[in-house]
Every structure is written in C-alpha cells, then in structure tokens.
Amino acid sequence: MIIFSDLDGTLLDHATYSFDAARPALDVVKANGIPLIFATSKTAAEIEPLREATGIHLPAIVENGAGIAWPGHADGQEDAYRQVRAALDRVPKPLRALYRSFGDMDDAEVAGRTGLSLEGASLARRRLFSEPGLFSGSAEERAAFLDALKAEGLSAVQGGRFLTISAGASKADRMTEIVAWHEAETGRAGRPTLALGDAANDIAMLEAADYGVVVANRAHPPLAPLAGEHAGRISRTEKEGPAGWNEAVLSFIRRVGAIEKGTAQ
Transmembrane residues, as ranges (predicted)? Predict the structure, then answer.
C-alpha cells in the first residue's frame, strides 16, 4: 500500500501542528516499510524539519500539488513563483486589493495568521510554485477574482485557511506521478492507495485514491459528500486531526493485511 496524507488539520493538529496523537500509526507505518507521502500546502522548506521529526524521508507533494520536493534535492529556482506573482499583479487592481497573500505579508503577519513561529513563518514564505492568501471580498467579487486568475492561466484552491493560487498541477496529479515513480523504483505495481485529508484542496486526491478518509476538522465547515463515499470507498473519522488519522491508518493497515492474507470479512 501507499499512503498519501495532507498535513495541517490531518496528520498535524490544526492549532498546535503536533502529530503526537498519530505516533502509534506512524510507528507501524515505518516498521512495515509502508510509503507515506506528505501531500500538503506547505513549502519544500517546511517539509525538511518534518521529515527529520517523523523519520519519513520520501518525496512530498508540496504547495497544494504545484510541485514535488524530492529528498536531498535543493529547492531549485523560484521562476514558477515569480510568474505566479507577476500574473497575480495583472489582475484588476480593485480585485487584487481584496487578496492579501504571503508575498504581501512579512514573517510576523504570517505567524500571527497561522499560529506558526517566526521561524516557521519564514519557511512558509519560501515559495517556489504557488501563493497562498486571504480573500476578503464578497462571493461575487471572489467569482470575478477567480475568473481574472483563469484569464492569466492561474487557478486557485481553498484549503483549511488560505486560498492558494498556482499554475501547477493538483495533489491528485502529483499522486499519479509518485505512484509511477514508486512502481519504477520497486518494480511493484498495483499497490492500493489511501489518501487522507480534511479540506477542499484534498478532494481531488481523496477521490482519485483507491480509498479515502476525510479527517474531521471542526475549524472549518465539513466537506460535502464525495464521489465514492456512498459506496464506502471514502469514509470519515469521528476524531479530529492526528487522533482521527491514527485510527484511520491503523484500521486501513489491518484491512489491507487481512485482504492480502485472504481473511477479510
């Protein structure tokens, strides 16, 4: 199996960014050599400390799918981010003024809006592919803003906190890339995939995986029913964040193990 997991509000607590409640499942994942791929709105710079803390050193889907962070590779150039910023600034000024992005903020403001430390906020502002921010206008103004972005070849996806703009792929697109990479690396094809997430920016990934889990996060409205949920391919946790993640991952590992042994009920 291969596990793809969102971070904030899923593996990491929405408020504290702790993954302590998920440690039992993380230990089982590592002990059994199960690939765990982070799929997050975070930057490549933010992923490195988390790799060290969790002991997970695998490719990560970053900036909502706008890029992939490969272990041991330098961050690379910021050309994609500069292009997004330039296109964003060509949006009509009245609409642009309603969107306050990380590039418009300093570290202190990002820290205040996210609950990150100043060091964490600095890492979050090291963008390579995308630009998150807050839109303060009406529903009609938001629709006009999204139309203006589309005209510039940009798209936006809503996460648990921020509306993130990019010209890149989605988490689901990158999931396909990493599955292909893993099959080439291991020579093993057809391994079941599990995706876990809590917000709108996770929907495509949840629906594209063989199995999906919507992790409870009461900090924002719950997701509407997803494709495959009625059939039982996608489930929801009762517990929030890493506690829900822990139960869901342990349950899935037991389920797949039973199927492989031919003892599933």
Answer: none
